[in-house]
Write a structure and sequence with these properties.
The structure holds 2 protein chains of 2 kinds. Chain A is an alpha+beta fold. Chain A is built from 11 helices and 14 strands. The chains are: A alpha+beta, B alpha+beta.
């Protein structure tokens, strides 16, 4: 049932500093509100727990994509549409472009933001596996502090994050990728367009003289949080792409993920598909 | 907080819950400056329908899945059920009522206006049936053609993927958009 709209407050801070001051003055009371693609759905369902929101959508300090030799840095309000249009992302971080293009519809991509996707912390979100593969870091700011933290481990449980009261995500940065990485992304949903994933698999690897010298793999919808499967990576790192090595890594993967039965799929199906996608990733590497 | 107890999330308690104040939202709708009034988190969909009288924008799912409430907000296609009224401040909005215009390069005359090529094609090729999804479909198609005047088949399919229709089976909708591309000369002035 739809929430009682007059009970919800929203204000538009003048700038980022104004927003942070308000969040500091009443810790935990004001929740940042960006494009609304998650929060308005909760409002409609009568499940929006916060009552007061700061509309940060128009804050220029949270926008823009900048590239240096070390990092590509995005404002937290970078939308999926903006990610899709970014040439530097397509070149260096193609998984993020793929994730953006497979998230919702055009209308959702125009309003949904990378920062919102991270803060919402859904294990079924499409961009987090790509962010994990690229060793993303988050800039968290409050009225009195600013810190960079690794995205890996930023979540603390199902839809829970390490954001402190008064903090918001200002930007996300990805360390530049050396040449020679191969990238793989596959989202499996009920239909191709606009489905929430049953499973999402992002990976990248470098091969030298027939061996996997480096590999990073992350999955969505297979655990209460998005998951970087370090043990599976270890099983593959330094190895040749043989059927026996793949099979061993598939066994590790099946143990490392913790999928459940829910409205979108079953644990059994997700475990099998995760293994199949690992095989498809390795086939792509071998090709 | 004036009230001691905190109501459960989303529970309608008009008496007990703290009430926000209505705000004035100044924006441009279909080329006209308007001032709308509503609670800050009222859905732009409702404000447009109830305050501006623009009932062409439809509600389907109310959760951003179906695209029936598609509008253009500062040139971008959005689901108006997911936009809080406060965020429309200063925005340029186009609804289905603003798609036909006196300058449309083709299309039947309706009063002092001519149908947009997409509207004309939906009529000619049977892209509309019950009509609930149609305004959103047309906005999505118009927006697509503004971004890609000569879209590929894949671009058309993707451009419409956020708009659900339970009548047509999509084939005629798709055919209509393909036909609209032919009706829209590639070098024509951008459609308003």
């Amino acid at each position: 049932m739809r929430s009682y709209i007059p009970a919800y407050e929203m204000e538009a801070p003048r700038d980022l500093s104004d927003a942070l001051k308000r969040m500091a003055a009443e810790p935990g009371v004001w929740k940042p509100f960006a494009g609304g693609t998650d929060l308005m759905v909760l409002l409609e369902a009568g499940k929006l727990s916060h009552r007061r929101f700061l509309s940060i959508w128009k804050l220029p300090e949270l926008r823009g994509i900048e590239a240096t030799s070390e990092y590509v840095t995005f404002g937290a309000l970078t939308t999926y549409s903006e990610m899709r249009r970014s040439a530097i992302l397509a070149r260096q971080f193609p998984l993020l472009c793929r994730a953006a293009s497979e998230t919702g519809s055009v209308a959702t991509q125009n309003r949904g933001t990378l920062g919102g996707n991270i803060a919402n912390a859904s294990p079924a979100a499409d961009s987090p596996p790509a962010l994990l593969v690229y060793n993303a870091e988050l800039e968290l700011v409050s009225a009195s502090s600013s810190r960079w933290v690794p995205y890996h481990g930023f979540w603390t449980g199902y839809k829970q994050t390490g954001l402190r009261a008064g903090e918001l995500i200002r930007s996300i940065r990805l360390p530049s990728m050396a040449a020679g990485w191969k990238h793989y992304y596959r989202k499996v949903g009920t239909r191709r367009a606009q489905a929430i994933s049953k499973i999402c698999f992002a990976a990248a690897a470098r091969i030298d003289a027939g061996r996997l010298v480096d590999v990073r793999i992350a999955l969505g919808s297979v655990a209460p949080t998005v998951l970087r499967v370090l043990e599976t990576e270890n099983a593959l790192r330094g190895e040749r792409l043989t059927p026996a090595n793949l099979s061993a890594a598939q066994n590790v993967l099946a143990q490392e993920i913790a999928p459940i039965d829910d409205m979108r799929s079953t644990a059994r199906y997700r475990r099998r598909i995760a293994q199949n996608l690992l095989a498809e990733f390795c086939e792509m590497l071998a090709a | 907080m004036p009230d001691a107890r905190t109501p459960a999330p989303g529970t309608p308690e008009p008496g007990a819950a703290r009430k926000s104040r209505k705000i004035r939202v100044r924006c441009e709708v279909n080329g006209r400056a308007v001032t709308l009034e509503g609670y800050p988190m009222a859905r732009l969909l409702d404000v447009l329908r109830e305050q501006a009288g623009l009932t062409g924008t439809k509600e389907g799912c109310g959760e951003g899945e179906c695209g029936a409430c598609s509008i253009e907000l500062d040139g971008a296609l959005v689901n108006s059920c997911l936009v809080p009224a406060l965020q429309a401040e200063g925005a340029k909005i186009r609804t289905i009522e603003g798609v036909a215009g006196p300058d449309s390069p083709c299309g039947d005359a309706v009063g002092s206006e001519r149908l947009h090529a997409v509207q004309q094609a939906f009529l000619t090729y049977g892209g509309a049936q019950c009509g609930i999804c149609t305004p959103g479909m047309i906005l999505a198609a118009v927006n697509l053609l503004e971004r890609y005047p000569e879209p590929s088949e894949a671009q058309i399919r993707e451009g419409l993927s956020g708009n659900l229709c339970r009548c047509t089976g999509y084939t005629k909708v798709f055919d209509s958009v393909v036909a609209a591309c032919r009706l829209t000369p590639p070098n024509a002035e951008p459609l308003r």
